[in-house]
Design brief:
- By secondary structure, the chain is mostly beta strands.
- It is built from no helices and eleven strands.
- Strands 2, 4, 5, 6, 9, 10 and 11 form a seven-stranded mixed beta sheet that branches.
């Protein structure tokens, strides 16, 4: 069992930045591909970004490409999402997910993830 705990959400004005973090309990963290997803009220959970086990590969949704950066520190069992140039449409609950020994790249489907965090709210005001 892997526990994921997100942090770093909050209220920010449009154009601002936030850095989300997701800390994992697993000592085998480096065996998991990690992803960030988000869910706005009344909408389905959507893919935001993913990073491979080593951190050598990353993939982004078109809506965040060039503004968001995913990274990981395997020594700290943590994955990050740096969000710049935030827009009101980025407002959502952000979740991190862990996918064990992923073989399909990029892992954009939420149903393929094995573990999820509880989410952190990001609100961008106009």
């Amino acid at each position: 069992q892997v526990q994921l705990v997100e942090s770093g959400g909050g209220l920010v004005q449009a154009g601002g930045s936030l850095r989300l973090a997701c800390a994992a309990s697993a000592s085998t963290f480096s065996l998991y591909s990690m992803g960030w997803f988000r869910q706005a009220p009344g909408k389905e959970r959507e893919f935001v970004a993913a990073i491979s086990r080593s951190g050598g590969n990353s993939h982004y949704a078109d809506s965040v490409k060039g503004r968001f950066t995913i990274s990981r520190d395997n020594a700290k069992n943590t994955v990050y999402l740096q969000m710049n140039s935030l827009k009101p449409e980025d407002t959502a609950i952000y979740y991190c997910g862990a996918k064990f020994m992923n073989t399909i790249w990029p892992p954009v489907g939420a149903s393929g993830y094995d573990y999820w965090g509880q989410g952190t709210q990001v609100t961008v005001s106009s």
